[in-house]
Amino acid sequence: MPVSQQSNKTVLTHPLGASAEVHFFGATLTSWKVASEERIFLSEKAVLDGSKAIRGGIPLVFPVFGKGKAPHVTASLPQHGFARISRWRLVNSSEDAHTVTAQFGLDHNMISEEHRKMWPFDFSLVYTVKLGAETIETHLKIQNTGDQAFDFNTLLHTYFLIPDESKVRVIGLSGVDYTDKVQQKTSRQEGEVVVRGEVDSVYANVQTADIQIQYGGEDGGVQLHRNGVNDIVVWNPWTEKAAGMADFGDEEYHRMICVEAGQVAEFIALAAGGSWEGSQVLSLL
Ligand code: TA6
Predict the structure, then answer these.
(1) Which residue of 63, 142, 237, 281 is 20 to 30 Å from 228, comparing CA positions?
(2) Rounded average pLDDT over 75-83
(3) Contacts with 84 (C-beta within 8 Å, 6 or more apart), sequence order
């Protein structure tokens, strides 16, 4: 079955062997395998019962990034918004000789009363996962279905599985100014991004469409191609933050790096009846 539904997730299987899994909770993609090799990090301690955001995969950040303050909204939203902690539904699926596609939906009628009160706007999200033989596209369409404009951040918070954090290199951000949330300063990226300690950086208005996550040596890596999203966040929690997360193993920081495409440096204003689309395509290096 190219697209099969289980109680808590949808499994996509490509005719040439690739696969992906998307939990209905948060529409969180938790696995992308090519030639049976996993490319996405999921913490061994991830909570998958819907009681909290899934630690790993591709959590969807919407409508706010970080500690949830949105313009014209007094209440604080949950960290990174409510999309990743709401139950989505499979709205469509299709396949052809080249791709297997599943679409997931979330709208204002599906979120909790609590979240609705925090963010009282009518909206519809459609998240499309398109699995190719050696690629995967994740595409988000945001529609303002109400009569009031709203402002949003959004981010594909991708956790990449890597062999060793000391060897990983993120290429494509050289020369871009970034907010270093660890050092609490603005800097300009010189050359490739490496992990030698906690990394939590927001690169705004990145011009390079293709960002490479190179594992090091002959181990290859993954290319992230951006469409319609201008900002990149790079995150590795390192030792202290790793130890502080109950749903993340103390040593798991060695095996992951988040490289996240989205719109987080500024809020995007979406007029009543308006829509926004953005996506990333992951492919093997
Ligand atoms: O995207 C980086 C970041 O904003 C970090 O600051 C860190 O908070 C990370 O997201 C994980 O956030 P979470 O709410 O999933 O623990």
Answers:
(1) 237
(2) 93
(3) 26, 28, 53, 54, 59, 60, 61, 62, 157
